């Protein structure tokens, strides 16, 4: 089975620092034999209030090119709608992964809650792997459960589509650092809906694994200094 890496890289305020962390994670994943390295939602810019500074074609374009050289969303919230546009459709692409290829698509962050819509979009698509980048955490206003509700929703999606679901969850928060307590903990879910494993909570590193295995190789990494205060670094 293909080896895949989940990169729980720390979120930074600066575009260049996020790109450097992504490249470092990709190099580590490659060294561990992974053919695909998955990142969290908005890995380039970071998922924080300064995104309005970085989410510009003239800035993001070169960053994307730099990452490439090294290697649409439903239900936008009101703040997201100020700088995102709703996606159209949910394409499924074949990605070459030794020893073969997999039909891959993605659900972004809380799209996992849009179960019926996502399943309808993927009907008869033959999807085999669903990548799930985001910044998810349990709802503090609801009773604690294990696994948390968003993972249970992802398990339901895996069963309904017959696909693997591989989450990449940010391991820290910048806008509200106190919300980092339950960050990270990225999940890998089998087509049966079985939760195979979760990466360390608040862990900075790269987890590499082979699909269908219940274990992973965890490579903790220091990705440079990380701002932990509630305000952006100077």
How would you describe the overall organization of this protein?
- This protein is α/β, with parallel strands linked by helices.
- It has one domain (3-220): 4-Layer Sandwich (Nitrilase/N-carbamoyl-D-aminoacid amidohydrolase), CATH 3.60.110.
- The protein contains 6 helices and 10 strands.
- The strands form 2 sheets. A 6-stranded mixed sheet has the order 3-4-5-6-7-8, covered by helices on one side.
- The model is unreliable at 225-234 (pLDDT under 50).
SSE order and pairing:
Layout: E1 3-8, H1 15-31, E2 36-38, H2 51-54, H3 57-70, H4 78-81, E3 93-97, E4 100-106, H5 115-122, E5 129-134, H6 149-161, E6 164-169, E7 187-189, E8 195-198, E9 205-210, E10 217-220
Parallel strand pairs: 1-2, 4-5, 5-6
Antiparallel strand pairs: 1-9, 3-4, 6-7, 7-8, 9-10
Helix pairs in contact: 1-3, 5-6
Key descriptive features of the protein:
single chain; 234 residues; alpha/beta; Nitrilase/N-carbamoyl-D-aminoacid amidohydrolase; six-stranded mixed beta sheet; four-stranded mixed beta sheet; 6 helices; 10 strands
Short description:
By secondary structure, the chain is of the alpha/beta class.
């Amino acid at each position: 089975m293909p080896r895949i890496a989940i990169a729980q890289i720390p979120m930074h305020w600066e575009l260049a620092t996020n790109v450097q962390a992504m490249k470092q994670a990709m190099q580590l994943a490659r060294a561990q034999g992974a053919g695909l390295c998955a990142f969290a939602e908005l890995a380039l810019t970071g998922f924080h209030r300064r995104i309005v500074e970085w989410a510009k074609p003239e800035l993001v374009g070169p960053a994307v090119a730099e990452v490439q050289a090294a290697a649409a969303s439903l239900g936008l919230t009101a703040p997201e709608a100020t700088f995102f546009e709703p996606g159209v459709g949910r394409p499924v692409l074949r990605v070459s992964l030794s020893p073969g290829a997999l039909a891959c698509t993605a659900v972004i962050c809380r799209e996992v809650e849009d179960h019926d819509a996502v399943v309808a979009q993927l009907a008869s698509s033959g999807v085999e792997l669903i990548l799930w980048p985001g910044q998810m955490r349990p709802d503090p206003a609801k009773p604690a459960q294990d696994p948390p509700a968003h993972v249970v929703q992802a398990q339901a999606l895996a069963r309904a589509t017959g696909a693997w679901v591989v989450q990449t969850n940010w391991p820290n928060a910048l806008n509200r650092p106190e919300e980092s307590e339950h960050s990270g903990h990225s999940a890998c879910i089998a087509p049966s809906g079985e939760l195979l494993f979760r990466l360390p909570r608040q862990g900075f590193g790269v987890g590499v694994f082979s699909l269908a295995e219940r274990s992973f190789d965890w490579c903790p990494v220091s990705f440079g200094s990380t701002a932990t205060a509630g305000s952006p670094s100077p």
